[in-house]
Amino acid sequence: MKRVVLGDETYAYDQSHFLLTAVNLPTVMQVLQASDEHPYMCIMQKIDLELARSLMTEMDTHRGEGSAEDAGLVLGPVTMPLAAATMNLVDLIETPQDAPFLAQSIQREILFRLLTSPVGGRLRQAVQVGTRTNGISKAIRWIRDHFVEPLRVQDLAEIARMGESTFHHHFRALTTMSPLQYQKQLRLHEARRLMINDRMDASLAAHRVGYESATQFNREYRRLFGAPPKRDIRSITFSDREFFDEGFPVIGGPQSGSATLQ
To answer: 217-228, pLDDT tens digit by residue?
Structure first.
């Protein structure tokens, strides 16, 4: 069982469901059930957008089009065919010499299962060029590449090719937060990563991610993570079973892959 927190929204799911991510989002993930006897294992697959687009043009079915039109994260059911195809892909680890010949066909089957699932409409919208999701994805990529810099919503709306009010509405629908809140979470996640991985002190980490006020950084850090920086970092050990997105794209922008399956 795993729990994923995005802003004020929480998604809890087990092996009977998958999590489809339509855009890059700063999330906190926590494993709820795991032990030495029954360790937690997860598969994350990056969606090949070009392969998905090619498959979509060949398909004459439109099942799932009405699902979760604006949500950045959606849960879908793991069917037996989807599970079998995924395990076939994992099995290629044991025979890497077969991967160049079989991997793409297996990925194609996985995409087919996703596109014809109840959340297939969400995936379609994520991969189609020119959709609202694609425009928001471009704006998100800009924020993630320039999160230390001052942010102007007008500039982001132009990147997404939307009016400001329309942009605000669809950005919040996808991410559950405003552009400024999204930038803030990126900064805080990156500061947390710097303190853990690079053993950077809180004041330097805050400055590195764009904060001018240490007091403001400490206040917003505690609001997001539930404890001030020093106490939070001290409490994180390998036994915590807590994993978090590092504040940077796990994948590239919308042209190289803006959706993932977990």
So the answer is: 999 999 988 899
